[in-house]
Amino acid sequence: MVLPWVQNHINRLPKDADYHHLQTLSRKMKFQTMLSLVPLFALATFANASTLLRQRAVNCANPVGIPDSCDFFRDCLQARVACEPEDYPMGVAFQTCTAFQGPQGQALSQAGQLWAGKMMECLAQDLAPDLVAGTWDDHNDGQRCQKIATKNYKAHPRCFVSTHFCTLPPSDWAKVVAMMDPKAFTEIDVFHAGLLTGLWCIPIIVASLLGA
Fold it and tell me: Which of 144, 133, 135 is nearest to 82 (CA)?
């Protein structure tokens, strides 16, 4: 069916109008049709992007297990706070998380591998609420990366013990310690976290031995 304005235009053409003029009119119609579709394509693209952002926001707000916890430290935390590569998000948390996915992590017992996933999930979820709330969005705060590290190191004892690190085979303890950078133990936050974890584990280990 020919649009009314097109029919009117054709009716006004001289009877001897050449074929070239009709071709020009046809191209004009096609161009206008394409222009009318541009807003639809833009709307569809925007809707798809919005969906992806919402999915990413959900992951950032509630990372679960590995590899989601690893993605949290790189794609959520580091992407937002932009710390240096050697700082806590990438230099410690992400590096440790990915190590648990590699040969060192696979060398752990089955219980140890389950523990690693739960422990990294616990550490990621410790930071997720502050990240979503924008606590570290002030890039003029030169201490924000250290604040993130200090906060998460304080969660280490709780995350280690609540996920049953204390009852893992001793061989797993040794493998987990071997995965850590020896230099890290010179930092007060790391030393304090390790010491507190050991103290919390003592009564659990004793109870386990007495109950055996």
Answer: 144
Distant-in-sequence, close-in-space partners of 79: CB < 8 Å, separation ≥ 6: none
* 86-115 pLDDT per residue, tens: 999 999 999 999 999 999 999 999 999 999
pLDDT in tens, 125-140: 999 999 999 999 987 8
Is residue 100 located within the same domain as residue 194? yes
Statement to judge: residues 131 and 188 lie in one domain: yes
Q: Which domain holds residue 124?
A: 68-211
- Per-residue model confidence as pLDDT tens digits over 8-54: 554 554 554 454 554 554 565 555 555 555 444 444 444 444 434 44
Tell me, yes or no, whether 39 and 89 share the same domain: no
Measured over the CA atoms of residue 52, residue 55, residue 61 and residue 62, the dihedral's sign is negative
Q: What distances in angstroms separate CA 110 from CA 105, 114, 204, one per listed residue? A: 10, 6, 20
Same domain? 175 vs 206: yes
What lies within 8 Å, CB to CB, of 166 at 6+ separation is: 160, 200, 201, 204, 205, 208
Residue matched to tokens 């097109």: 6
Token pair 């996933």 in the structure block, residue:
117
